[in-house]
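Task 17 of the worksheet. Students: predict the tertiary structure of the chain below and write it out as structure tokens. Keep your answer in the requested format; marks are given for formatting as well as content.
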Amino acid sequence: MLSGTIPGELFLLPIVQEISLSSNQLVGPLPAEVAAASNLKVLRVDDNQFGGEISRDLGGATSLTSLDLSSNEYTKEIPTELFRLTRLETLNLESNRLLSGRIPTEFGLFTDLQSLSISDTNIRARIPSEYAALTKLTDLRMSNTLVGGNIPEEVQSLQEVVTIDLGDSRFRQTIPSILGNFRNMSECACAW
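Model answer:
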């Protein structure tokens, strides 16, 4: 099991495409050199002890297609620099209990996004209508959050959804009829 901080030099390797450091005892912020990781496609640092604000430098790693920061101790809001990662297909921020702020409308910029999880965070507000742009989304997980209100009709364009988990959130409506539009859905957890 690894401990300590990640050396910045790891992100300066010119041909590295995947860094997986899951399930260790790594701490501190991600090094600033992550912004220079021009060929990095996959970054998994889940299940560690990273804390504080999510590194704004991640916005420079624009080749990322998969980012897993789950099960850490991140706090504050999702930095706007993260929305420069327009090639993302998978974004997992779940189980960062102190990650907070409003649910970003900018997630709608991730038009290639297939999997989004913000479960087990303190992110709040309603699902923005901008999520209608996520037409490739197959997996949406927002359980145990402060997300609530009504599910906007615009999300009915998300016809590729296979898994949707909105359980234990703050939705205040009956099961919306638009869930019937998710023809490929095989798993639905919507207890609220």
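Marker's comment: The first strand starts at residue 3 and ends at 4. The chain has one domain: 3-189.
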